[in-house]
Amino acid sequence: MKxxxxxxxxxxxxxxxxxxxxxxxxxxxxxxxxxxDASLPEDPERRPVAVISGGGSGHEPAxxxxxxxxxxxxxxxxxxxxxxxxxxxxxxxxxxxxxxGALLVVKNYTGDRxxxxxxxxxxxxxGIPVEVVMVADDVxxxxxxxxxxxxxxxxxxxxxxxxxxxxxxxxxLEEVAALARGAAESVATMxxxxxxxxxxxxxxxxxxxxxxxxxxxxGIHGEKGVRKSAMLPADTIVxxxxxxxxxxxxxxxxxxxxxVNGLGGTPPMELAIxxxxxxxRLRELGAEPVLGWCGNFMTALEMPGCSLSxxxxxxxxxxxxTSPTEVRIWPGSAEVAAEVKSVTASVxxxxxxxxxxxxxxxxxxxxxxxxxxxxxxxxxxxxxELDSAAGDGDLGASMVRAAQxxxxxxxxxxxxxxxxxxRAGEALRRAIGGSSGPFYAFALLRASxxxxxxxxxxxxxxxxxxxxxxxxxxxxxxxxxxxxTMLDALMPASQAFEAALAEGxxxxxxxxxxxxxAWRGVExxxxxxxxxxxxxxxxxxVMGVPDGGAEAVAKWLEAIDRSCGQR
Length: 567
Fold this sequence. Notes:
- The strands form two sheets. Strands 1-2-4-3-5-6 form a six-stranded mixed β-sheet, with helices on both faces. A six-stranded mixed β-sheet has the order 9-8-7-12-10-11.
- The protein has helices spanning 11-21, 86-96, 110-125, 156-168, 173-185, 234-248, 268-284, 315-321, 363-378, 380-390, 395-407, 417-431, 436-449, 459-477, 487-502, 507-525, 535-538, 548-563; strands spanning 26-28, 34-37, 50-57, 74-80, 102-107, 130-135, 187-193, 213-216, 227-230, 255-262, 288-295, 305-312.
- The protein has 18 helices and twelve strands.
- Helix 4 (156-168) packs antiparallel against helix 5 and helix 16 (507-525) packs antiparallel against helix 18 (548-563).
């Protein structure tokens, strides 16, 4: 187990101390793991209705992260995935509530239900009015259990917001409770997991999933889901989740709030992909999503996966969900775009010969470019492996995108070698992100300028073009041979090509020498200390592994050589 903790037994308290230390508007009780809004009036008579929630820890930012004016008055934290005690809940009520009373928002788990309800009863005995709202938004078990036995999961956060906003407007306990109950009855949640999480005190994952398996219908305590499935595309997963949700909630014709919630180990990129499909599919189902939130709201430690919550909105709920709050982590705006706006950039296209100006396509050029594209596709796995060892692992994918762009070049791009290189550079510039795109685009542009625009292109012209390409990359990138970059294959190839021609070899023989030199450069790069690119951040840790960029150069040089039948 690798976690940034000290003693697992003290992790909850230390976590709360850190949260409070970062926020001057919060306070932590001495004897209990309870976070309180520090702005509460000292005189109980002046206190508004208190909204209190909580449960086991490990769901951060829930629940302590939502303490503040406009949301929770206090949050009670139990051990990881364990309900807080009755005494802790009662302490929170006594510390926060005055004559106007308290509302307890409780996730529908057995421990939470028992302890919060008993604490509420003990507070009533002391003369404090207390209402309890149970949230049972999980729809995964609706086929096997009645709704009142469903679990409370991420939709609880929206109930927090509605109740807290109602209190901020000065409403009495009965009205706040009625609004919270209406919200709880109008929200449904479905979750999926791509893997398990590890409870610190246990030290091992709660369950196992195969590399190609996911769980549908999990809770938020590291437990298994309702059913396993093979890994599916994100859109298919979202559609399945929405099918379950739409069976629990009638969404057609309704205005909806949509909460895409990460479970702790899912990157924002993937959550946004889920949100994209959810909004699109809901509109196809005849619903009108008008409010949306996307991020980590109620997690399960580091579990990879997400949940999707839908809340049917009325005017009051929509108004309360969008009202301001002093809680720092709550998103400031929740309005959903009616459609994805697109903007067309005004870009001047590079001058290109028209169909009537371009000469007939050169089959030899077409054959060489096709060979390069095929070589890049075939090398994807190898280039990804090399780049993962020394960089971010995207080189293989970049070269596949390059291949796709080259294959789309029109016949008009093959009228002359100079025009072919220029057009290929334009295509790669648009197709490849990161550093590879600019390097190849600049190199091909300079190489095209080194070739005669008309007439025959001799071997010496190609040698000048290859040297111009290498010089261009060195100029724009600042690297030199020996720095462990693509130049460690390109420069030796250029030098060998020129030297072979000077010896009197013909173009075919000279280019074969260039390819051999490129591969020697690839082998040598494995023993070079990196000075440029992401590999430079790893230092000696990449020693022994050839540079991916250099191998890509050797691959396409070899493909050109073979396409012309010289080897």
